[in-house]
Amino acid sequence: MYGGGYIFEEPNNRQVREEKVHDEPEKLAAFEDRIARGEKIEPGDWMPAEYRRQLIRLIEQHAHSEIIGALPEGTWITRAPGFKRKLALIAKVQDEIGHGQLLYNAAETLGKTREAMINDLLSGKSKYSNVFNYPAKTWADVTVIGFLIDAAAIVNQVANSKGSYGPYCRALERICYEESFHLKQGHDAFIELATGTPAQREMLQDALNRWWKPIMHFFGPPDKTSQHSEKLMQWKVKMASNDDMRNQFLDMYVPKIWELGLTLPDPLLRKNAETGRWEYSDPDWDEFFRVINGGGPCNEERLQVRKWAEEHGRWVRKALMKPTEKHTLPVA
Amino acid sequence: MLNNAITDLLTKMADDELIMGHRNSEWTGLGPVMEEDIAFSSMAQDKIGHSWALYRIIEENLGGSQADIFAFCRPENEYKCCHLVEYPNAGYDFSLMRHFLFDQAEAVRYESMLESSFEPLQQLSRKVKGELKYHTLHANAWVMQLSKAGEESYDRMQTALNEIIALAAGIFEPGKANEQVLIDAKVYPGEKELYSRWLDRIYPVLVKASLNLPPLESITPAYGGRTGQHTPYLAPLLKEMGEVFNLDTAANW
Question: Does B91 lie at the interface with A, CB-CB under 8 angstroms?
Fold first, then answer.
């Protein structure tokens, strides 16, 4: 059955399947042994309720990030300069929606329907990546997103693809493969501006300055403040710490940005030769929490667009749910 | 004389596909189901890809301007697209019915050019035919499914058909003197013939979907696009499309 989401059977009231966890220590031990041996957990396997809950939360947020993430770039499809960029951008954004579809399918194997997930997105109950609550103001923003946000997403997704839940890992393998092409097109468009006319370079520097803070926020709060990590890492739901992923990203991409003669708006940003770790100014975590709780420049707009799509498409989904009995084949 | 006529033909075909592709691409992220987002994005890429191929034939074989410049920088009255493709997407019902009528027209047009005397067009038609097969398959399946899925859905399909049919007939606006040159030179069979083949193609699908084709003698086809007279929707679309490229047309983007 198709489903773009939204309330035909009040799916939010359906219960997600719950395992009895407290009184099954033997099953839990066997489960944890399997994970420690590097085995994948599959949909029919026994799993603790908390594992299921955390995975749904993780995969669902990832899926939402794909379809909401399509919006800031999607608004530039109609304005992309020239055939090459236009075709690449449509293909890229189309892939992102496809990733959303794959991820919703993966999450559905854990017992929550696509409709329920989208309802939770629209009600604000379920989150998506904070970075998409910022506006893409110019074409240069599209190149910064296509290069650096995609690069950051790859760091995160490659780590997660080695996790313990089979369907999520398999979806991520395909996603990472496609994302590596996105990164190439983003990098290519970024370089074109960086090596272009003075106006193009200025446009790019401006976009970089505006996006740097959201990029620093991308991997989440510092490890010292992050909650509930230990169990999730043991269960291989979370595969790398926020700070480690951030450090890996900075290591890979800051030199590439500096090589192009561009600057980053943080005077303290440097790699400590002794520790091998990057040092940077506090990227204003208060803003991060303010934005994630709805106070960002585009939170409302992003959800309004999704609501428009859900409301205007409702008659189509309703029609698909009640086709007449007579089945017809395409004639061409 | 013949080359001018061919340039005219290719320009109107390319402009139709560019603007239709633009409209299709506007569905990205907004479709009624995710699968339709993906379908419209995919068709948008094909349409825009076809237009690019046609503009490159004009550039490489007929002494035209560079394809990006030609596509993104002309004044509005030099575009030769039909009115059908210019209209905003409105709802999914309008977009779907337009997609059905437009892609069936594309299919008969490209099929008619499989034996064209103009070699580059013949080659392109072979490639495009395979892609259009999926576009028409998609359109037919959805038109039939939605027409058979209850009253509201059926009414929407019928209303969309009533609204769009005159616009769709405008695809086949006669090309005057140039058209006869093309027919005589066996480049393609002409608009009147394509119109008749198109009706033969859409009619059985509409019958199966229980949709009523409005009496054709009662409609006034929306002509004017082929001579550069457009709806008020085209100018803002072109402005948007060229917004970045026109910041500096000499720069690489």
Answer: yes
The ipTM, to two decimals, is: 0.95
Give Cα separations from A9 to A6, A14, A116 (angstroms).
9, 9, 10
Closest alpha carbon to A61 in A100, A27, A11? A100
Q: Residues of chain B with pLDDT > 70: what percent?
A: 100
Query: How do strand A278-279 and strand A270-271 relate by DSSP bridges?
Result: antiparallel
Q: Predicted confidence band at B157 (pLDDT cuts at 50, 70, 90)?
A: very high
Instruction: Tell me the residue type at A203.
Output: M
Give the C-alpha separation, A115 to B4, whole Å.
55
Is the pLDDT score of A19 beyond 70? no
Give this prediction's pTM.
0.92
A307 neighbourhood in chain B, CB within 8 Å: none
pLDDT at A24: 86
3-state secondary structure of A271: strand
Answer yes or no: do B52 and A82 touch at CB < 8 A: no
Question: Would you call A41 helix, strand, or coil by DSSP?
Answer: strand
Q: Which residues, in sequence order, are bridge partners of residue A41? A: A165
Tell me the CB-side half-sphere exposure of residue B3, using CA atoms within 13 A.
8
CB contact under 8 A, B248 and A67: no
Half-sphere exposure of A62 (CA within 13 A, CB side): 29
pLDDT band at A330 (very low <50, low <70, confident <90, very high): low
The CA dihedral of B176, B177, B179, B180, to the nearest 10 degrees, is 120
Please name the member of A70, A101, A323 whose beta carbon is closest to the beta carbon of B149.
Answer: A323
Q: What DSSP assignment string belongs to A221-252?
A: S-GGG--S-HHHHHTTSS-S-HHHHHHHHHHH
Question: DSSP for B58-95?
Answer: HHHHS----HHHHHHSS-GGG----HHHHS---SHHHH
Identity of the amino acid at A78: T
Partners of A86 on chain B (C-beta within 8 Å) are: 48
Q: Look up residue A184 and give its two tokens.
A: 């190439």
Q: Please list the residues that pair with A271 across neighbouring strands.
A: A278
B85 touches chain A (CB under 8 A): no
> Residue B140: closest CA among chain A residues belongs to which residue?
A330
Is residue A259's pLDDT more than 50? yes
Give the distance from residue B86's alpha carbon to the nearest chain A alpha carbon, in angstroms.
Answer: 14
* A4 contacts A309 by C-beta, under 8 angstroms: yes
Q: What is the DSSP letter of A313?
A: T
Q: Which residues of A touch B237 (CB under 8 A)?
A: 78
Distance, in Å, from the CA atom of A47 to the CA atom of A21, rounded to the nearest integer, reads 9
Q: Which residue type, as a one-letter code, is found at position A189?
A: A
pLDDT score at A22: 60
Predicted local confidence at residue A321, as pLDDT:
83
